[in-house]
Specification:
It contains one helix and eight strands. The relative contact order is 0.14. By secondary structure, it is an alpha+beta fold. It has a four-stranded antiparallel β-sheet, covered by helices on one side. It has a four-stranded antiparallel β-sheet with strand order 4-6-7-8, with helices on one face. The radius of gyration is 28 Å and the shape is rod-shaped. Helix content is 36%, strand content 29%. The chain has a single domain, classed as minor pseudopilin epsh fold.
Amino acid sequence: MKIISKIKLTGFSLVEMMVTLVISISLIMLGVVQLGTYQDQLILNNTTKEVKSSIEQAARVCTIRHQAIMINYYPVSKRIALIGKNYSRQIKLDSQIEVYNLTSLKISAKGSISPQTITISNHKSSQKIKLQMMWGRVIDGKD
């Protein structure tokens, strides 16, 4: 006697496989979009910190050398130039970054700047740097 055993193979149907594939791709795309947003915010944060530390460093140099330094922002070339008698520094900004209220800013030979607020934006969000250099410090302002 021959025993015939029927083995029923089960698996995904084409519809089930397509639904699973669509859900997986949707989750991956959501992660990619969030990663892009995170990267934009990271570039904005790092640019703000770099501009802040450069201004603080320039103020210290002014105090030590008793020389004034001019800070200029060039929107076409996306760079900030800090220029003094024996001091020169250039900051190259990312193409998506804009800086507002930073035109012909002068740090005196004593290291002081009149109070001012600089806004750094990537067109999605912005951060502010409040300059109060009479007391030798820069204050971050978040919106």
